[in-house]
């Protein structure tokens, strides 16, 4: 089955700096890669996703890149703000099945 | 507004008791999922269901049971066979076969007292 590895497990940045979280996947059939943000005591929320026919996608301060050859994808957050502090999960899935999640990255943005 | 509702938000269980966590969605999603999250940990899949009256075990199904009698509802029962049930439980739903991501509920925190 699919295996998704996520790094780093914790990340601390200064407000205004950029943050990068990386994930690798094992199943070459995976074609959909969502990212979720989980605030304390809440359920994860989908913040951005990318499909295998696209190399990069941006939405304001967040962007995701995908390298299908290397089987890795990354989340980039620019101009970080304290409200970006949360746990971020990557995931990978195919058309036929459920998503496989990474173990999460706890991002702390220091004011 | 469409969404997915979990209840209760907090639940306390005595050892040896079964408890049922509720999950309801009005998004017309085919698939529903239950995840367990321990402090500082990732999401571990307990059960999932693609259609009504059908469900499959996930990675940690032992000590749990589910039913899917209606498209909108996917309750999870934590049985007395689950030796370490204290955790945060998350329900999610999605369109099966099309990749549009999951919609998660707000979770139920279960504590054994």
Counting copies of identical and different chains, the oligomeric state is heterodimer
| Largest interchain contact | A-B, 23 and 24 residues
What number is the mean pLDDT of chain A? Answer: 95
Task: Please identify the structural class of chain A as seen in this structure.
Answer: mainly beta
What portion of residues of chain B belong to β-strands?
over 45%
SSE topology string of chain B? EEEEEEEEEEE
Largest sheet of chain B: 7 strands, mixed
What is the general shape of chain B? globular
Rounded Rg of chain B: 13 Å
In total, the number of strands of chain B is 11
The radius of gyration over CA of chain A amounts to 13 Å
Q: What share of residues of chain B is helical? A: under 10%
Distance between the termini of chain A: 41 Å
Percent strand of chain A: over 45%
Give the rounded overall mean pLDDT of chain B.
Answer: 93
Number of helices of chain B: 0
Coarse morphology of chain A: globular
Task: Please provide a written account of the structure.
The complex is a heterodimer of chains A (111) and B (113). Chain A is built from no helices and eleven strands. Chain A is mostly beta strands. In chain A, strand 7 and strand 8 form a beta hairpin. In chain B, strands 2, 4, 5, 6, 9, 10 and 11 form a seven-stranded mixed β-sheet that branches. In chain B, a hairpin with an 8-residue loop joins strand 9 and strand 10. Classes of the chains: A mainly beta (111), B mainly beta (113). At the A-B interface, strand 4 and strand 5 of A face strand 5, strand 9 and strand 10 of B.
Distinctive features:
heterodimer, A: about 110 residues, mainly beta, six-stranded mixed beta sheet, five-stranded antiparallel beta sheet, about 55% strand, B: about 110 residues, seven-stranded mixed beta sheet, four-stranded antiparallel beta sheet, 11 strands, about 45% strand, globular
């Amino acid at each position: 089955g699919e295996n998704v590895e996520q790094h780093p497990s914790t990340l601390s940045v200064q407000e205004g700096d950029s943050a990068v979280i990386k994930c690798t996947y094992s199943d070459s059939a995976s074609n959909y890669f969502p990212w979720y943000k989980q605030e304390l005591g809440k359920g994860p929320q989908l913040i951005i996703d990318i499909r295998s026919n696209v190399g990069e996608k941006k939405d304001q301060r967040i962007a995701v890149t995908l390298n299908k050859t290397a089987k890795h994808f990354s989340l980039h957050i620019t101009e970080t703000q304290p409200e970006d502090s949360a746990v971020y999960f990557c995931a990978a899935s195919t058309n036929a099945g459920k998503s496989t999640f990474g173990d999460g990255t706890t991002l702390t943005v220091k004011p | 507004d469409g969404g997915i509702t979990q209840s209760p938000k907090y639940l306390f269980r005595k050892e040896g008791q079964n408890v049922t966590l509720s999950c309801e969605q009005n998004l017309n999603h085919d698939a529903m999922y239950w995840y367990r999250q321990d402090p500082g940990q990732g999401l571990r899949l307990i059960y999932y269901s693609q259609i009504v009256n059908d469900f499959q075990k996930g990675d940690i199904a032992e000590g749990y049971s589910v039913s899917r009698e209606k498209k909108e509802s996917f309750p999870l029962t934590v049985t007395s066979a689950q030796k370490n049930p204290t955790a945060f439980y998350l329900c999610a739903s999605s369109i099966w076969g099309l990749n549009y991501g999951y919609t998660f509920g707000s979770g139920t925190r279960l504590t054994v007292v």
